[in-house]
Predict the 3D structure of the following.
Amino acid sequence: MTAAGWLEIALYVAALTAITPLLGRYMAHVFSGPARWGDQDWKAYARSLLTFTAVSFALLYVILRPRMPYDVAFNTTASFVTNTDWQYYAGETTLTNLQQMAGLAVQNFASAAVGLAVAIALIRALAARSGRSLGNFYDDLFRGLVYVLLPISVVVGLVLVSQGVIQSLHAGPVASQEVIKELGTNGGGFFNVNSAHPFENPTWLSNFVEMLLILAIPAALTSVYGRMVGNRRQGWALYSAMLALFVVGVVVVAIAENHPSPAMDAAGIHGFNMEGKEQRFGIASTALFAVVTTVASCGAVNGAMESLTGIGGLVPMANMQTGEVIFGGVGSGLYGILLFAILGVFLSGLMVGRTPEFLGKKIEAREVKLTVIGTIGVPLLVLGATMLALTSYGKASIFDSGPQGWSETLYAYTSQANNNGSAFAGYTGVTFADLLGGLVMLVGRFLPMLATLAIAGSLVGKRVVPAGAGTFRTDSPTFVVVLVGVIVLIALLTFVPALLLGPVAQGMTHRLF
């Protein structure tokens, strides 16, 4: 890869790090202060969240149904209300402009705001010194929509229009959907080829801005967390763990794609693997975009994910299999990594024979059980759904055979369960896959979310224990190492056998690097 490619990656990391405290300070201000519409405990907060989601689901299904069969409408509705934006259809040929705007774009805002609200509720619980209130769901939803998502979308949407992203009722209201597709870590494109389409992503600058939008809020939430709990080092510790895993992923994909694929080796062709790459941007931008979109629960793409080499395709899949906690989705990434942080503190406490504490609050049996549900539930869901997809009912969706067919299937349910939305082309939507995928997206979204709120409800009123000589600091480099280790051991190792059957097997058929 050229020096310019490595420079682009370095510039991206620098820009993301620079905006994290700036946006974090603003968002911490937005969500500070008492709830204006009445306090709620965790159960009331969860009921409000589920009620809002149920109404959103019903309205979106009604909007989509005239142009879609019932199974595709169900899958798409589940996809957009869960912030997944998995698409078994071509947007520009299936839906009208009104359906794109009133249905999909609205849910791009709403689903992102829901995830953001849950993250803020957990932060409040960790910062609280007494009481039972997590705030008010509708108040947090309103603040996230009106003061965070909408203003940024308006400003950056104009930037995208200036770069050539189209915005009209004749050619398509693309820019308004494009900006929240990235900012809200949604990922569903107006066009079937997503951000590889020049109407969605016309220039190098638009490509860079779209990548930066994807991780802007998830990264900034680490700063929000540090500010709201009164210790900014806590936020930087989470950011450091996320960034370390992110950089490793980008480097591995970039190096892997600078070598030939198995098909190129078989044909005796030497050089870079440019199959499926965005020709205007090259390997660096495509590799960076592939990792950015899969460390977040986004799913937007500017190249063909299935055209990556075996090892290059392994990284995006592994990114999602961490539980989307390497920055992750809007809100979901932060509360996801905080669950792993709680688990890491608990395991560390076991090793030294001390009752674990997180931010001065004792971690006891109830919190550990809920944390295990929130962290292990989705991997089990992925493996179970993949198994069902291999039965006679699901085989019609699998186009390719061998390791590639397995990889496409595993990627599909990894993506849907973790609310990502990107795909290896080849896995086809039929009724069984539509219905199973819709259910997987709903469970994958709300199981960790409800577990998080239950943990918040358990922690909010706990007495804070003063730090002592035996307290395990959660703002230190040691904790960063522990956190990365827990993510790798608990999340990724669950999938090792499955990964060996697909992308690793493909990678072993030719030079790995």
